[in-house]
Each structure stands twice: as structure tokens, then as C-alpha cells.
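Hey team,

Filing this mostly as a record. A colleague (T.K.) asked me to run one chain through the structure pipeline before their review meeting, and I want the input and output archived in the tracker in case anyone asks later how it was produced. No errors, nothing strange. Just documentation.

Input sequence:
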Amino acid sequence: MKLNEKIIKLRAKNNLSQQDLADKVFVSRQAVQKWEKGKAVPSIDVLKQLSKLFNVTVDYLIERETSEEINTICRKLDSIPKEHFIDFID
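Output structure:
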């Protein structure tokens, strides 16, 4: 999932309008609109504010793999019997 998609999802999940989000991170509504359309990206300072506001890491916002995708992979790994793994620890 791309940054713009994550911003849209997180904003909606938190029941915020574009204006609400803009007010909370001290930018214009137009800036939020550009982020969501993928025409601009937030500055690192704003990314930090977004991470605090949405209770996610900056890494989550900028990385391609989402925590949902990682959780899906972990669930799949958990379903594999342990005897199919090689034990590297003594």
C-alpha cells in the first residue's frame, strides 16, 4: 500500500475530514488533498506528526509492506508444523 493510500485509510478510520487532518498537522486542506492524490508527500516533520496522530510508526507510513500484510505472513508461518523448520539455535 502506498503512502497516499495509507493516509486516506487512516484519516477515514479516525473519522477525520481532510480539513480536520490539515488542522491537526498545521497544513492546508489542499496539502492533504495533494498527499491523498499522490501528487505530493508530507515533510518528515509532518510524517512524524501523522505517526503520532494515527499511532503508527513513520516506517509504517513510508514502507511498502503494511502491518496487515506482515500479520498475514506470520499467520501462514504459524500454520506450518514446527518440524518443517530447521533449528538454528543450539
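Quick notes for T.K.: Residues 67-78 form the longest helix (12 residues). Residues 25 and 46 are 7 Å apart (CA to CA).
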